[in-house]
Write a structure and sequence with these properties.
The protein is α+β, with helices and mostly antiparallel strands. The protein has one domain: Cytochrome p450 (Orthogonal Bundle), CATH 1.10.630. 45% of the residues lie in helices and 9% in strands. It has 16 helices and twelve strands. A hairpin with an 8-residue loop joins strand 10 and strand 11. Helix 6 packs antiparallel against helix 7, helix 7 runs antiparallel to helix 16 and helix 9 crosses helix 11. The longest helix is centred in the middle third of the chain and has 21 residues. The chain is globular and about 60 Å long. It starts with 20 loop residues before the first helix and ends in an 8-residue tail after the last strand. It binds protoporphyrin IX containing FE (HEM). The site of protoporphyrin IX containing FE (HEM) has 24 residues, from helix 11, helix 12 and helix 16. The site of protoporphyrin IX containing FE has 24 residues, from helix 11, helix 12 and helix 16.
Amino acid sequence: MNAVVQGGGRTLQPAGAGEPWCDRAADDLPFDVTCPSFLADPYPHYERMREQWGQMCRLPSGGVVVLGYRECSAALRSRDFGHGARTTSDTTAYGLPARSFLLVDPPVHDQHRGRVAPGFTAEAIGALMPLMTEVLHERVSAFRPGDVCDVVTDVAEPLAWSVISSLLRVPEEFRQDAERLLGGANPRQSGDESLNALARVKFSRAVRKTLAAAPPSRCPTDLISLFTSPWGPDGLPATQQEALATSGLILSAGYKTSVGLIANGMRALLDHPDQLRLLTESEPTPEDISKAVEEFARFDPAIQIGLRAALTDTEIAGMAIPKGTPLLLLLGAANRDPHVFDHPQRLDVTRTPRHLAFGAGKHFCLGAQLARVQARKALTVLLQARPQPAGAAEYDPRWVTRHLRSLPVRLSPNPEIA
Ligand code: HEM
């Protein structure tokens, strides 16, 4: 474990291929991000780090780690920070040869984001509602009183996948490959690289095939028709490279994250029976459900970090940040900052919503509203079925994206559900 250099800093070397800066920075942190106890509950580790090093600290590798809510928020919103020419990798998470708009700065960021933004309006989300209701109804109504249901595999994954596959027009059969792609995207996770590579090829082939078959449309029903329509921000259809990069981003940013919001939140609720009772003793209002979902996002966010680099010599909260300095923003720690939240380690579904789970500023999550809607619908249906713990919850062994892979609950479903 390396010592942290406070206040100093040194010239950064560019990250080598397959070695994004966050991986190097992770090696400098005072905890092992691959260790099972950290992965089961990273929050006490963040608090120990905050107690020892404060809200921000400089690592031996030259980068700066930010734990404070206000400091993270300032970095996310400031134009002094961005992604620059190369701060992580020049490929998508799947090794496709393009950077998605998550990892680029304006003006290209705004152009690519602007092209798919119409797929995330209230109207577009409304058009997905019947599909979400159907999936939830089909899944939860299949359970009889006393049955054990896995919130992840029986509810959250089918729901989130139905939304993603509808946005990207990828078939149901592709889900297994998507799981592999998302698993293989993590260089620290072992896996059969040839199968991961095959899943990458299948994904890019599936997107190319769908693009070739999609006629331009003035009333886009999914993201694919937004790629092929020449009515985007630049008056041209997307290039194949842009379409692949954005599709890869939607898959990686939108599937397991939504699963995490639903399942991590349900798990937190089951761990806090007083809060579960608040939502089940009398029928919760839509406002109660919305607040609970925001608290889920704060309490155990599905994305634990953000990455940025200083685009100019600048500062945050009085700490000088020279141009080129990479920043590791610990969103999970910021969401539990004791300077901002009362009793931050406690789940409180009546809290006034406030958090950085969806980021902030230019790169604020494009799918935030879609994720919220899915989680509100899933939570409403699950609460009606009076869930009770029925076994151990199991997290996927990853840090950057944090989501459960199993959460057994016993249900007492009402036949009128959904
Ligand atoms: C609970 C679920 C979700 C969480 C916690 C989450 C979290 C985040 C965060 C933290 C960022 C900002 C990253 C950064 O600034 O570096 C982000 C960006 C993004 N998210 Fe989400 N996300 C969720 C769901 C979704 C969904 C459902 C979609 C789409 C279907 C989506 C699409 C995106 C996209 C496209 C971006 C990039 C925005 C940009 O760079 O302008 N997300 N998300």
